[in-house]
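Table S2 (text version). Query chain:
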Amino acid sequence: GHLKHGCDFILSAWDPSAKTLVALLGDPNLDHSYWMPPEMIDEIRMPRPVFRLSPSKPGSEVAGEFAATLAASAMVFEKYGSALGGAMNSAYISKIKKAAVEILAFGEQYKGNYAKSVPLVEDFYNSFSGYEDELAWGCAWLAKATGGPAYKARAFQYYKQSLPSPGWGINWDSKAYGNSFLMYDLFPPGSPEHELGRQKIGADLDFWMNSVPKLEGTLAILTEWGSNRYAANEAFLSMLWFKRSKVAKYREWAKSQIDFMLGDNSNGFSYVIGIGSRYPKNPHHRAAHGSFGDSMAVPSETRHVLYGALVGGHMNTSGIAYNDDRNDYQSNEVACDYNAGLSGALAGLVETFKGGRGAAVPREMPGKEIEVSASQSRTPTSTTVDVNLVQMTGWPPRKVGLSVRYYISIGEVSESDLKVSILGGVRSPSAAATVKRDASGSYAEINWGQANAPFPARQSDNRAAVKFEISLRSGRPWRGRGKDPSDGDNSKIVVMSGNSVLHGSGSGGGPNPPPATQPPKPPAPRTPAPRPPTPTSAPSSPPRPPPETPAPTPQAPKTPAPKPSSTPVPVPTNGPTGSDALEWSVPALWGGGMVVEARVVGGVAGTTVSFDWDVPVDIVNMWSANQVVSEPKRLVCRLIHSAEWGFQASFAGSTAPKPLNIRVEGTKSSDRVAPAMAVRTPPPLPPPATPPPPIPQSGGPCGDISYDSS
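Corresponding structure-token output:
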């Protein structure tokens, strides 16, 4: 099924009539700026542009790879199709073979480097080795799949143009080391093609066994970025060569590499997640981490165990410890190409040593998916309640409609005598609030339909808050009320999705654990892919991109007081067109605090906004922008994704502070200096009954292959 899924993707990427081939889905720079479950990408409507190759924009590397994949898959389906199911029948095999022939012809007719046609890939998966190795790869696999002598001849011609040299190894860029095996297999013993393949295989493996530095005298460390991946790839080739040569040293060397990765080392530490008693707990992997706040720090623990994933490993052999840190993408990232060689090597070892079936992967039990808190106050005629939700579903991450049941004591009246009025909040409820009754007692029900419900992506997406008042329809005093069951006991606030209870137990049940203090939120760093060149002599680390300023991830504001409407106030500029204005509004203001929403007209990611305050101001948190300077009377920030941004601030007094000497730099037009402006704010509101709660999270550090986007 997994193999067919890949083939179906390639079939959908190829348009034979238009002669176009999809080479890239999505913007890798934008992909790397988000740290959230991949299931949420559609919910935030993240742009996913499509980049196609064509006769005027060639990409022979992609064409060769795709053709090889389809041809090799056809061979698997022909041999095992009956065991795999009816979908991999003769008609499907013919279909993917035909597409392989067409795609390879496209790559050969319109030769060119795909990174020149799709420049976005240059900082991620550039083609350092050229395209001849991929064309040899595609021709060789089609020769094996079809028996066509023309493919075999062309495969050798491309192979001679991209011969491997000891000093590196098979990897996502260079197929030359694998092509040596294909030449050895395709041509008869004694032929020049066969002998050249044999010579290159031996030189490559001898280099790895004898010349690459070894950790603890065993594990080969060729480069500091994802070193385990290269050793696993070569272990796979070593097992392939043992199968052909029957020389035991190649089997034993491959076994030593895989055994070390599985825990046969001085620390008893396995670099394959879920294997052994000690293994990585915090891999650099979005889906496994399961953040519900677009942050590597929220939550602190990794929520899912990524069984079977190989992490990058040690950076050198000098005794520097492996770093089990989610932020360390050089040592602790996981990726498809990391596991490719590992899987092949393990298959060879199991075949050789007749290993049995391992233990089943344990079923993961869902964890906490909703955090809820509330505060309330009473008058003789009413009860006012503030409810705050954090949506952090992870089994799976999902956007669902939610309803909250806040249990109350109704005293001497009936439910029909009471009304519920919505006073404000974040993400307005989608239906009228009512008072109802169930087996646990009377409750006020607040509903968010799916369209307006919070979801576990950015911090601005995962929260919902509502302030509501319960009172008698008659307006008379409300007598006979006892203590409300949900007052002061969050476990007695029920949150439901349809008929499923996600949190709480009505007027019964035990207390929830107290929310943990939210740790500081670092930005989600961009993860550039390693860049292996094809060296000609001594081993060297691949060139790496220069350090970049990571794209910080937005932070959500704490839930402010009720949010009255306000009109944005444009800031006039001194520019000749006046296009770079700053629109500013204060939708919530209370004694000592405010929420500001702003927009830079013409603003883009990277635009800088700076201004002075007329009174000292403390920025509590900021979203969609990164603070560059935050002093009591000065703020400089840089936009992250778009022109819109905002923050929550505290100050002394009840009048909203005013920004002065505003400057906007790096917009679509030239820089502008804006004069002081008048800010329209709503009338001050009374302060909340209690301060807005911090984002709660599950406690305890714990132990994430790659959405690569990684």
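Notes on Table S2: DSSP finds 14 helices and 24 strands in the chain. The two ends are 22 Å apart (CA to CA).
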